[in-house]
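User: Quick sanity check before I run a bigger batch. Here is a single chain. Can you write out its predicted 3D structure?
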Amino acid sequence: MLRVRVDPVRPAPRRLAPAVEAMRQDQVILYPTDTGYAFGCALSSRKGIGGIRSLKGFDVRSRKPLSMLVNDLSEFGHYAIMGTSVFRTVRRILPGPYTIVLEASAEVPRDMRNRHGEIGLRMPDSPLCRMLVDLLGEPVVTGSVVSGDEEPELEDPDEFERIFRGRIEVLVDGGPMWPEPSTILQADGNELVVSRLGQGPVPET
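Assistant: Done. Predicted structure follows.
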């Protein structure tokens, strides 16, 4: 496992280069987001997606979808299907600490979807996340290390190095973090309903 130290607020592209190259080589990385540490791989990598599913304990029958990071609202229309009113809400609250669960479009690999054909889309207000997506040139499949259903514990890169050695190619070390899960909003017809309350306040519809 290669460990690279990065300032999450002011990341240097050269410091993230090993993580980007690992994702291009179908590997899984571990990196800090706005909500805690997460596993990451390239959307185009079936091997990487399978690796994250294994690390998260999600099989193809899971009701929990995998999520991807994007940097532009137009990508919501490319990778998901939603009505105008849902998109208006999404446009109003992003970027921010939200995961939007939507019906996947035909552009999304089947390995990404849950048993209902859904995916999660994230556009966080995180310089490091935005830079990873920009440098990779495609969405980053992402999955938090800690489930939002668990009691949060301090996430320490030293512990991650011990636990995930041999399973993660690159550890992007942004220092210890307390995980604060995102608010999950799920499309239900023409509105978004709260599936899990986290950092982001519930938007008015």
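Residues 83 and 190 are 6 Å apart (CA to CA).

User: Great, the batch can go ahead then.
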